[in-house]
Amino acid sequence: MTLRIGDTAPDFLAETTQGNFRFHEWIEGSWVMFFSHPKDFTPICTTEISLMGKIQQAFINRGLKIIGHSADGVEDHHRWIKDIEFLSETKIEFPIIGDIFLKVAKLYDMLPAEAVPGNRSPADNATVRAVFLIGPDKKIKLMSFYPMTVGRNFDEILRTVEALQLNAKYKVATPSNWQPGDDVVIPPAVSDEEARQLFPGGWCAKKPYLRVLPYEAISRS
Predict the structure, then answer these.
(1) Average pLDDT over the chain, rounded to whole?
(2) Is the pTM higher than 0.85?
(3) Distances from the Cα of 102 to the Cαs of 36, 112, 174, 199, in angstroms?
(4) Does domain 171-219 have CATH number 3.30.1020.10?
(5) Which residue among 53, 73, 108, 181 is least crowded, i.e. fewest CB within 10 A of its CB?
(6) Is the pLDDT of residue 54 over 60?
(7) Domain segments of the chain: what residues?
């Protein structure tokens, strides 16, 4: 069954670099970034884990837990982490899931059902390079899949986290190229009557369906 935004993130028993746990129990009401990799000891994956090690605190400061995934075993992960920490001069403090039998990769529709474990090249697992943002309600809020040759933009992922959290807290939506501090919009699901209760200072209705709200109007609420 294909996963969609709004679906409950599938639960699983995780074997990770920080011990074993059940995924839903680990979430514990937090926001989660779950990002996956096709194989250990590969160049793009190494740069991504290295960068996350350097900027992980920015995600933690927003109440978000980070968990990585790679379609190799935990023993390999530990050896790979040593390389990453040496290259990046930072400590990797988040767990990385071991998935040598590809169970999690298939559970999250990152690999076709016919994919088999064993001796693999990165190209055999191309679609494993994915990002899932999961809310405290365990619902999938974002899914993103990247090709093998393109490293992920984690600044964009962090921006999306801020936008999602803003929407969850204030019932607003963010326009194209939005950055924290920019104006937001009132989504169509919020009626004018409800909007007047939520934002008594008013808004600028450029069109009946395009109601622009200054960021200050929500930052003061």
Answers:
(1) 93
(2) yes
(3) 12, 10, 36, 48
(4) yes
(5) 181
(6) yes
(7) 13-152, 171-219
* pLDDT single digits (tens) 70-119: 999 999 999 999 999 999 999 999 999 999 999 999 999 998 777 788 77
Cα 45 from Cα 138, distance rounded (Å): 26
The reply to whether CATH 3.20.20.10 applies to domain 13-152 is: no
- Mean pLDDT of the 2-25 span: 96
45 is a catalytic site residue: yes
Residue with token string 């899931």: 97
- Among residues 45, 92, 104, 111, the one annotated as catalytic is 45
Question: How would you write 100-149 as a 3-class SS string?
Answer: CCCHHHHHCCCCCCCCCCCCCCHHHHHHHCEEEEECCCCEEEEEEECCCC
- Banded model confidence at residue 125, pLDDT cuts 50, 70, 90: confident
